[in-house]
Backbone:
């Protein structure tokens, strides 16, 4: 398996604004050494680190870890998409690093739910596409899905992935979610990431594979096995269950829905292709 969605952060090194005042288990430092034994015990053969805040310090920290630890195959970092000039400069810099595979911005924390459609951001995303990098859409609203579809249409060369399936049932009804995802699936450059679903069940630490099966069944049927991938969302997933528990539920669910060869695509092949991973 390739875990396409794992976070690390060092609160002694960088500021993570969304964690300030947070009283959960997330408000602490999470280093590679804390999770590596559990990653290995779950037979995960590659990990993609994903952006956790909108600053270069977070990106640099992930890239440093990638250089040190062989299981880290790629990094989804951050760029100042509102500034086309600075995006171009930083793209030239970061693209020299073979671990730099994609971009993400915490759009779900922006007051403007259509933040991605600003002209400067769209122009910057054109540059991201030209650099053959992908874009992770961390959406939670209907508007986030609508924006992703507009971007997919206007920039067909940009690979996009919907993190956490856009959180089914959390801020939008399941019926609306299904309608929007069916539309999104019509764009061949939009993929989905089966991750971050534990909290969507609203059954922390007691949810099962059966609880998430209807959502996963729907996205596999809608997007096909070629455009689905899997991610733990550690350490955020700890709010609903351990790393091993989360992955085991995803595995059990997917293996109950598709053949072993199809499951392999969801577990690893698609991630390798989407993020352009090497040495897997």
Residues:
């Amino acid at each position: 398996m390739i875990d396409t969605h794992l976070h690390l952060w060092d609160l002694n090194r960088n500021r993570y604004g969304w964690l300030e005042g947070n009283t959960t288990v997330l408000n602490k430092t999470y280093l590679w050494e804390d999770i590596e034994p559990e990653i290995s015990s779950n037979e995960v053969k590659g990990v993609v680190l994903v952006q956790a805040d909108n600053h270069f310090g977070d990106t640099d920290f992930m890239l440093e870890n990638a250089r040190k630890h062989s299981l880290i195959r790629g990094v989804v970092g951050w760029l100042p998409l509102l500034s086309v000039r600075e995006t171009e400069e930083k793209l030239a810099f970061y693209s020299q690093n073979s671990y730099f595979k994609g971009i993400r911005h915490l759009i779900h924390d922006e007051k403007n739910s259509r933040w991605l459609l600003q002209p400067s951001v769209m122009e910057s995303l054109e540059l991201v596409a030209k650099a053959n990098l992908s874009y992770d859409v961390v959406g939670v609203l209907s508007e986030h899905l609508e924006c992703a579809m507009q971007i997919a249409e206007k920039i067909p060369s940009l690979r996009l992935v919907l993190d956490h399936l856009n959180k089914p049932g959390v801020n939008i009804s399941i019926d609306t979610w299904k309608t929007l995802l069916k539309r999104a699936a019509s764009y061949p450059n939009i993929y989905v990431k089966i991750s971050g679903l534990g909290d969507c069940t609203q059954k922390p630490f007691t949810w099962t594979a059966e609880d998430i099966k209807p959502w996963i069944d729907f996205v596999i049927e809608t997007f096909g096995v070629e455009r689905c991938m899997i991610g733990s969302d550690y350490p955020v997933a700890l709010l609903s269950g351990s790393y091993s528990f989360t992955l085991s539920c995803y595995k059990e669910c997917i293996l109950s829905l598709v053949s072993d060869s199809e499951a392999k695509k969801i577990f690893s092949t698609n991630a390798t292709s989407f993020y352009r991973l090497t040495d897997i």
Q: What stands out?
A: The beta strands are 2-6, 46-50, 72-77, 100-104, 134-137, 160-162, 190-194, 228-230. The chain has one domain: 2-274.
